[in-house]
Design goal:
Blueprint: E1 3-7, E2 10-13, E3 18-25, E4 33-39, E5 46-51, E6 58-60, E7 68-73, E8 78-83, E9 92-103, E10 108-115, E11 119-124
Parallel strand pairs: 2-11
Antiparallel strand pairs: 1-3, 3-8, 4-5, 4-9, 5-6, 7-8, 9-10, 9-11
């Protein structure tokens, strides 16, 4: 069974930090590009950070660049999103994804093949 299971979310004060984790199983994790997406109530889903896994492309949403860092531990089949200097507008459900990327550091088309169930991040003001 293909699974992406997020953890590490919760409630944090503005200016604080969280690290999201995404444990992958049921597929060859190392063969896929990885990403994090988020969606707040009543708003469009947006890509937060994506990585091509071969070093060619690392994309960050402009509003999170220099605050968030995407990474992966292949030995643990785990994706991470380190989130620092959190703001109330970062509040959303965050989803881990795996698929195939095209583009560059400024623009990415992500053909998502696997989705995590999502985890809530709430930043209080």
């Amino acid at each position: 069974e293909v699974q992406l299971v997020e953890s590490g979310g919760g409630l944090v004060r503005a200016g604080g930090s969280l690290r999201l984790s995404c444990a992958a199983s049921g597929f060859t994790f190392d063969d896929y590009d990885i990403g994090w997406f988020r969606q707040a109530p009543g708003k469009e889903r947006e890509g937060v950070a994506c990585d091509s896994r071969n070093g060619d492309i690392t994309y960050y949403l402009s509003s999170v660049r220099d605050r968030f860092t995407i990474s992966a531990d292949n030995a643990k089949n785990t994706v991470y999103l380190q989130m620092n200097s959190l703001k109330p507008e970062d509040t959303a459900v965050y989803h881990c994804t795996a698929g195939q990327m095209e583009g560059n550091d400024s623009f990415v088309e992500f053909n998502i093949e696997h989705w995590g169930q999502g985890i809530q991040v709430t930043v209080s003001s």
